[in-house]
Write a structure and sequence with these properties.
Blueprint: E1 13-14, E2 20-21, E3 24-30, E4 38-45, E5 50-51, E6 54-56, E7 60-73, E8 79-82, E9 86-89, E10 95-99, E11 105-112, E12 115-117
Antiparallel strand pairs: 1-3, 2-5, 3-4, 4-11, 6-12, 7-8, 7-9, 7-10, 7-11
Length: 133
């Protein structure tokens, strides 16, 4: 058993421009310990804000808590998600997620393994147009 204590003792932080487009507030709950186990946190996206394309070595789970947003994996269409939806990304699957243009979007993300970041996601782009940096 591994017990990971909740809430990192730091204030929420605005997402950096290297990984996010628009206003994104991150509130970390737990971080990977010694490269093992999950990291978890809540993320609030203002309307139209989103993360860049990325992947997680061990996969990721999103629990949509409020508002509505989009999720997309490389080579597939984007999907509208709303409060109560749960999204699972397989290990290494390249994806992005963010708020719709008309409302905010809040989710809890549980991520496993290292995160690899890529280029900015474009809300209007065709699926699979992303390229690795």
């Amino acid at each position: 058993m591994k017990l990971i204590r909740g809430r990192v003792e730091e204030a929420g932080q605005w997402g950096d421009k290297e990984r996010f487009t628009g206003g994104v507030m991150l509130d970390r709950m737990a971080v990977i310990v010694d490269g093992d186990g999950p990291s978890a946190g809540d993320t609030l996206f203002v309307p139209g804000a989103r993360c860049h394309w990325h992947s997680h070595a061990g996969g990721q789970i999103l629990i949509v808590k409020a508002g509505e947003g989009y999720v997309q994996t490389s080579g597939a269409p984007k999907h509208l998600v709303r409060a109560g939806d749960i999204v699972y990304f397989s290990p290494g699957e390249k994806s992005w997620h963010g708020a719709s243009e008309r409302t905010y979007f809040v989710h809890t993300a549980i991520s496993f393994g290292e995160t690899s970041w890529f280029e900015e996601a474009n809300l209007d782009s065709s699926p699979g147009e992303s390229r690795q940096r």
